[in-house]
Amino acid sequence: MRTFKGETIEKQPAADWPKIHTECAKYPRFAIEVRKYDEAAEISLKQMAYFHGVIVPLFSKEFGDSPQYWENKLKIECGSKWFTPEPIKIDGNVFVMIPSKKKLKVGDFNEWYQNISDFGLTVNCVVPPPDPEWRLKEKNGKLQ
Facing residues of 94 across strands? Predict the structure, then answer.
């Protein structure tokens, strides 16, 4: 899925229409979503990449459980404010669903990260602070 962002100039949408057209032409059917962009409401892709590229693997490596286990555990242990498990019933069976991270705002994610960092200290696992160069350091084997 591709997301295109744009602005309006003199009340006219300004976007890379040829690129949007090219992307849409790849599919027999498509939908374009137009909504007001609110930067504060958008979870940062960098935050999400850091969570999945550094934080989850750190706990998984340290304690030997799967990345999915640690994603869910960190949601429940450190983010109960946003991730309260919701029981759902399917064909008479009750399953527990843990809400998605996608509903977090950038500030919420920062608060959750701080909670994860504090939790890490309680289990003797130091969570490194966000670092824009983490991916390069990981590639070079220098991520601590």
Answer: 89
3-class DSSP state of 57: helix
pTM score > 0.85 for this model?
no
* Alpha carbon distance 54, 59 (integer Å): 9
User: Across the chain, how many H-helices and E-strands are there?
Assistant: 6, 4
51: in domain: yes
Reported as a pLDDT band with limits 50, 70 and 90, residue 88 is: confident
Query: What is the domain extent for residue 111?
Result: 45-139
H-run or E-run covering 9: strand 7-9
